[in-house]
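Quick start: what a row looks like.
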Amino acid sequence: KSLNYDESSRRIFNDTISLIFTEKENEIFFFLLSSKNSVSKKMLLKNIWKYNEGIDTHTLETHIYSLRKKLENKLEIKNILQHKKNGYFLNKDLL
């Protein structure tokens, strides 16, 4: 599937599909898209939420879950956002 991504409009799309991310989903997606390797929870918390010590990691997990479901259901691509031993990984080959 040939998809385009526009960070400023928080949208991933092609001729038949258009998916709009929430602000945090967009930040997570862009960060994972820009990363060459898996990204740890700690790194995501630091870069997306500016690592507020009081933040609950369930917040991150909830956003990841929502983002994964949107990508899989709307784009019909399974295993695009994976959780590996070292952290989260966006399978760019599927885009």
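That is the whole record. Strands lie at 4-6, 11-13, 18-20, 81-84, 87-90. The chain has a mean pLDDT of 89.
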